[in-house]
Amino acid sequence: MKYFASFILVFLLSFANAQKQQVNENLKKELDEILRLDQTYRRLFDNGITAEKKSEILKKLNIDEEDFKEKQWQLVVDIDSLNMRKIEKIISQYGYPGKSLVGEPTNQSAWYVIQHSNKIEKYLPIIKNAGKQREIPFTLAAMMEDRFLMNSGKEQIYGTQGAGEFFINKDGKEDFVNFIWPIKNEKNVNKLRKETGFKNTIEENAKELFGKDFVYKPFSLKKALELRKQASNIH
Predict the structure, then answer these.
(1) Residue 183 gets which letter from DSSP?
(2) Residues 109-123: b if buried by 16+ CB within 10 A, e if exposed
(3) Opening angle at CA 104, ends 101 and 109, nearest 5
(4) In a 3-state reduction of DSSP, which class is residue 219?
(5) Were 156 and a residue from 15, 146, 185, 198 both cysteine, which residue would form a disulfide, CB within 3.0 to 4.6 Å?
(6) Burial class (CB in 10 A: 0-12, 13-18, 19+), 183
(7) What share of the chain is helix, strand, coil (3-state, %, to 5)?
(8) pTM, 2 dp
């Protein structure tokens, strides 16, 4: 009788684990599709994308070209909103869907959606914990923290975030400038980046963000905030 009871227990545990694995696989597929949409919609606005490639992407997304011309970036805003609702539901059920739950690189899907949302402040503690637990690369948690600080008008830590602002130049004309958002400890940022897991320096990261001819120059927080204020007044 004890043997039979043990057999039943083992069977039930095996069945539960199999069910859990199936749920995880379904979740992985859902997150992969969320990330595909997040990235595909943004490809429509890549610099240098050909008209042929854009038409191909629109066809895959089942978007009429006239509808695209009318809505433009609003299409991205709409899909971001839909994706965020899905991610919030997933997090409420599972916590952050990290590597142990959905594997790699699917564990980055929720991060991308949150990074593109206006809810970073709400989910940053969860993201930082996922980074510490190695459920996602800690560099992703660092990038989100930098974005939160930049959006809050504060100095970033790891130098991951760039900005672009319109301003009125000395000739009284409207101009535009790209720059790396001010860094709290700029002198030691490359050392910190290396310790955190970033493979490039702040200078190399700036070129990746703004082009190979871009030369990194530190900006003060005061100057960055003045540019942001000017830009809000211009547009």
Answers:
(1) B
(2) bbbbbbbbbeebeeb
(3) 80
(4) coil
(5) 146
(6) buried
(7) 65, 5, 25
(8) 0.86
**What phi and psi values does residue 10 have, to the nearest 5 degrees?**
-60, -40
Give the count of alpha carbons within 13 A of 163, CB side only: 27
DSSP classification of residue 214: -
pLDDT tens string 118-169: 999 999 999 999 999 999 999 999 999 999 999 999 999 999 999 999 999 9
Following DSSP, what letter does each residue of 22-57 receive, concatenated?
HHHHHHHHHHHHHHHHHHHHHHTT-TT--HHHHHHH
The Cα 54–Cα 45 span in angstroms is 9
The answer to whether 77 touches 117, Cβ cutoff 8 Å, is no
Distance separating alpha carbons of residues 181 and 143, to the nearest angstrom = 12
Extract the tokens encoding 125.
């503690």
Closest CA to 91 of 80, 79, 107: 107
